[in-house]
């Protein structure tokens, strides 16, 4: 009886316009929870302590790395958006759906959750194993909604490499976490307050 139920189960691709707000948030938080779990397990297999990776550093140098790279990336992103056609930076409308009507406090929470979970996995675990170049390739590939367009895919790769660079230079995971948080926060707020044309 149970075997027949599994045979009836069908998987289908869902287009962005088919997503409800609730389904989008469930997907976001489930993927981030999975990212966090994989990151922690990977770090434990490396015989390292995830809590030590997340301990706050002594000085404030990491803030300069995080702020500096975030500012540079936001300026480049703004210039690319101004010069390139809008459809060349298209992510299928996911970011717009996620942030357009979201309260500011929720945008802050999303940016914080995503930055901590993704940086723990990618910079804290994967980069430790295979270095920043291959980590950035994997980072670009998991942002599959951009893969239809070469420009955002390349930009995600370059951004990831920059995050890996400031992690190595600062010696703390908080530099890329801060940078990632600021980029997601400012991008989310820009989408939230952008006037409709």
Automatic annotation (TrEMBL):
CAAX prenyl protease 2/Lysostaphin resistance protein A-like domain residues: 103-186
InterPro entries referenced in this protein's UniProt entry, alphabetically: CAAX_protease, Rce1/LyrA-like_dom
Keyword Endoplasmic reticulum attributed: no
Any one Pfam family match given in the protein's UniProt record, by short name: Rce1-like
A Gene Ontology molecular function term of the record: metallopeptidase activity
Keywords, comma-separated and alphabetical: Hydrolase, Membrane, Metalloprotease, Protease, Transmembrane, Transmembrane helix
UniProt keyword Endoplasmic reticulum, yes or no: no
Residues annotated as transmembrane: 23-45, 65-83, 104-122, 173-191
Descriptive protein name: CPBP family intramembrane metalloprotease
Organism for this UniProt entry: Paenibacillus gallinarum
Record lineage: Bacteria, Bacillati, Bacillota, Bacilli, Bacillales
